[in-house]
Amino acid sequence: MPLKVIPDTDKPFISIEIPLEKSLPDYDLDDLEKSTPRDVDAVLVTQGFRDLVDDARGVLLDILCQHRKTIVEQSTHLTDLELTPDAPPLEIMQLTGAICAQDEVYRPGLWIVLRDNRAPQNQPPSPALVERVKHYADELVRRMDLA
Fold first, then answer.
1. How confident is the model over 69-100, as pLDDT tens digits?
2. Quick one: which of 49, 81, 90, 101 has the fewest CB in 10 Å?
3. What are the DSSP E strand ranges found in the chain?
4. Burial level of 86, CB count in 10 A (0-12/13-18/19+)?
5. By C-alpha distance, which of 99, 119, 112, 91 is closest to 33?
6. Residue 81 gets which letter from DSSP?
7. For residues 134 and 22, is the Cβ–Cβ distance under 8 A?
8. Torsion angle of alpha carbons 9, 10, 11, 17, nearest 10°?
């Protein structure tokens, strides 16, 4: 099951669905293919899956912030108390578990919703941003070894 990047058509939001394709013994997630969505629900509430979501949030934040300079690099005055960085271009609105389906096989996965803070509220994200988010999602899968 490949990951899906789904841009909204009328708002600056992009959703990402990442199905877990292999066992993750570090999170006690071994048997991932289920025959019903209810069976996946039992996986989504485990401590191991919650730990996975927490770790995914940290890794995703790192990926989103890589291109931004640190406050120290932006300022020549380290004691500038009025220094407030710009809002990040992408904000994590939701990062939670998902039930991913394909050919009547169900798997647990991650559901991520990002908002483009620089776009007008009634416009979809640009194709370039959708492609960049796809790259971010691929990097998240690679770093966390999810596929």
1. 554 455 555 555 555 555 668 899 999 999 99
2. 81
3. 4-7, 13-19, 90-102, 105-116
4. exposed
5. 99
6. T
7. no
8. -20
